Amino acid sequence: MNPQIAHLKKVIEPLRQEIINHKVYSMINDIEDLKIFMQYHVFAVWDFMSLLKTLQNNLTCTSVPWFPVGSADTRFLINEIVVGEESDVDLYGVRKSHFELYLDGMEQCGASTLQMLLFIDDLKLHGNVKEAYRVSKTPFQAREFVDFTFDIISSKKSYLQSAVFTFGREDLIPDMFLSVINTMHKNFPDEISIFKYYIERHIEVDGGHHSHLALQMTSNLCGTNEQIWLEVEQAVVQSLKRRIGLWDGIYDQIVKNR
Fold first, then answer.
1. Kindly report the CA angle at 123 between 172 and 242, in degrees rounded to 5?
2. Cis ω before 65 (30° cut-off from 0)
């Protein structure tokens, strides 16, 4: 393994464990709890796609006239990930992005998509993230999470974007949460089947094939520059802390709802 990658993994392991063992998972006991989780988490699913497309725009040529950009190896890595994230298949074999699949899962279980759809509609209309927050009444913790992602996007540093994409956006799904979802599916198959499929697909695609591609992409972009790896470490640590903050917000909302 790349020694810089190995070092980074060691540094962030305590934060990864904090996410894996977060108290929010033990609070998701029924569909009402899951609805709250999804209504917050959908913002992280959406901005993941924004980070992904930023990488594709920066690492490949997405304009006309076309010119070769950067390394063909890196172009392959990001394009391969985009194909899977932007045009995967749902459980009926219909082509969907993972974000659209998540929205389908929300609608099936009765979680409100109103905030997310209002956010997107206003952002399309005005192009202002802060205004879209206001119009949609986006939860504070979701705002903080998205704001950090867009700070990384605005940095225009592909190596930071790739590292946060690779290490900071890895949805660590503990066995306990999978067990809860599987139990819910047995009791409410008509409400949970799409979300269950999303989780399974995420583990299969994102946690498997895509994680290897993303690791190689980050390694290619960072090279052996120690200053770059230091920047990367700081950004990834902050990204994981934002994920913990998002989970804290979901936990607090579930408690409040009860």
1. 30
2. yes
Here the tokens at position 9 are: 């993994």
pLDDT given at position 58: 95
The kind and range of the H/E element at 95 are strand 95-96
- % of the chain at pLDDT higher than 70: 97
pLDDT of residue 27: 92
The letter for the amino acid at 19 is: I
Is the predicted pLDDT of residue 113 greater than 70, yes or no? yes
pLDDT at 207: 61
Whole-number pLDDT of residue 130: 95
